[in-house]
Write a structure and sequence with these properties.
Elements lengths: L1 H16 L9 H8 L3 H7 L3 H12 L4 H5 L4 H14 L1 H8 L4 H24 L6 H24 L6 H12 L6
Helix pairs in contact: 1-2, 4-8, 6-10, 8-9
């Protein structure tokens, strides 16, 4: 029940984002929209920022379970980037707010998790020197985060298939061949 209520609060928050700037949405507006008590909101979230944090996790890191079942990194990247693309409106509203830097960090953390999983599964980067594996993960996470942010800021359609094919080539060392 708690996850369902949290999801409903997030859905109503996303609905409010269509007509309001994120920084202008208050708990009062949200509880009125949801038809819940303030106590119910605060039972699930400490504040609006906690809701945003949970929402971004749902829209990014939440797709990691689906990604883990992919047959290869290309399929995994398509699944991951498609989830980001599908929730682009929510993410763009968060990026347009005073929480832009925080949102960027949450997106990047999610991408790091994704890259660590596939880096270990496909390339065995965990067997490298810790500083080398950390560098690889951070370098790729920053690059992918940059691509995502650029498409959101420019309001351009993200070509998921193209990006996933290029990422796979880079990760497997086939980009120059």
């Amino acid at each position: 029940m708690a996850k369902s209520t949290k999801s409903q609060i997030l859905q109503h928050f996303s609905k409010l984002l269509k007509d309001h700037e994120l920084d202008k949405i208050t708990v009062t507006m949200l509880v009125n929209e949801c038809e819940i008590s303030r106590q119910t909101f605060y039972y699930h979230f400490n504040d609006i920022q906690a809701l945003i944090n949970w929402g971004i996790q749902q829209y990014t890191a939440g797709c990691l379970e689906n990604v883990k079942n992919a047959k290869d990194i290309n399929e995994a990247t398509v699944i991951y980037l498609s989830a980001i693309k599908e929730n682009g409106f929510y993410l763009s509203k968060c990026l347009e707010s005073s929480l832009s830097g925080y949102t960027t960090l949450l997106i990047r953390e999610s991408i790091c998790e994704y890259i660590e999983f596939f880096g270990n599964k496909i390339l065995g980067i965990s067997s490298l020197e810790p500083t080398d594996s950390k560098f690889i993960v951070e370098f790729l996470a920053n690059a992918v985060t940059g691509l995502i942010l650029l498409s959101i800021y420019k309001k351009e359609e993200m070509n998921v298939k193209f990006i996933s094919e290029k990422i796979e080539k880079i990760i497997l060392g086939k980009i120059t061949k």
